[in-house]
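Summary for the funding panel

The consortium committed to producing paired sequence-structure records for every protein in the target list. Below we show the first two records in order, beginning with the earlier of the two.
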Amino acid sequence: MKIYAMSDIHGCVREFDEALSYIDFSDNDTKLVLLGDYIHYGIDSYGVLDRIMDLQEKYGNERIIALMGNHEQMVSERDYPIDNNRFGYFSIPHKRFATDYIWWIKTLPLYYETEKQIFCHAGIDETLGEKWRDSGKKYFLWDSSHKTGSFYKDIISGHISTSDIAGIEDFHDIYFDGQSHYYIDGYTRKSGIIPVLLFDTNEDKYYRAYKSKIVPVQPFKK
């Protein structure tokens, strides 16, 4: 099986289309895990949501797993708009009723777990050990501590741009700490890049997926 992951698309629908083109969905053993923050900042938040919802309708929720991010939480709990009106842009027409998007957002889970991995938007309370599922929304959606080190499962998350974690302004690649943490927020609205992480379960290896190739993920080194 191949498990792909992306995060923090933030309304950048053209970049999302580009990243989706790297994935062969005709293979029934392919999964895509999306780690939240699909909306705000970019030119078409509704377009990004439509892409995800269309993929789920076509391939099923078991193959297209969409998680909640803190921006989706703001929409579902704090009465924020989905579109970009609050940032001064014009609203873009969308293909579904507004209530359909809100209902969908409210149903998004906080994490996705495999035998080897924990996928989430921001992070978990690692001090809880195997009880990490009790972390609560503060950790799953808002944790900004970008932890490193060893955990009993690999943790794949976004939320904090990898340029901030690496301390390098133009670094927008996957940040792997060499132990248990993979960060994949490429600061898309600035960089135009959505890093695509690929885990091949047969090889038990992680890769960075591009249009015509895959490259093994290496620990970050300055």
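The next record, for a separate protein in the list, is shown here:
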Amino acid sequence: MPTLAGQTLLVTGATGAIGQAICKALAAEGARVLIHYGRNHAAATALLSAIGGQGAVLCADLTDPAAPEALWTEAETHGPVTGLINNAGIRSEIGVDAPMSDWQTVWDREFRVNFHAAADLAKCAIPHFRKHGGGRILNMASRAGQRGYSANAMAYGASKAALINLTKSVAQSFGGEGITALALAPGWVRTEMAEAFIAQHGEAAALSGIPVGRMAEPQEIGELAAFLFRPSQVSLNGAVIDVNGASYLR
């Protein structure tokens, strides 16, 4: 029997390269996948078709403070939900010389999508998991949350650091109830975000400092996510798993 048979998993930000890879890997292991998207309905429905219709498509704008609770409520109609993958994220740039109003707008939006939405979904998920015998949360963090980040994207690094702390807090606080939490902290992954950076700065700048000499592929992240949702992986509760080609070692 597939390792994730019987699981129903909500994946936020599912239409990006990493999100799609996660959904495909989960479905390949037998999970039913709830595919969240913000704007790209066509990509979400195409993804559902690509995984053989094993799930459903859910829409929510995570910049709206009310959206996470509404998204979870809709997910429950396809449940019980056994796991949550907080994959949705944005990366914005703003320098310290920018006007204060612009600075605050960027930081507020970055934290709203990257952290507050994840925290709100976790708040909704935990009571649901309690009712249904447990569950698991996987937060998509970043190398940036471990080591700090560049001056023009500090909000991104800070939001990912907060996500890592949330992961550890959930793991410590609710592990005894069968509710576990983990985080993945990738470095560069070959996505649209990475390609945009390469277009501006060159591939050598992106690969600098990565001993293996290449970015991670989205499929690597997908494979890890599927592994982490195996019921046997309880002792990984609280782990923050680095996926960065040894570009940052703790």
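Regarding this second record: The radius of gyration is 17 Å. The mean pLDDT is 96.
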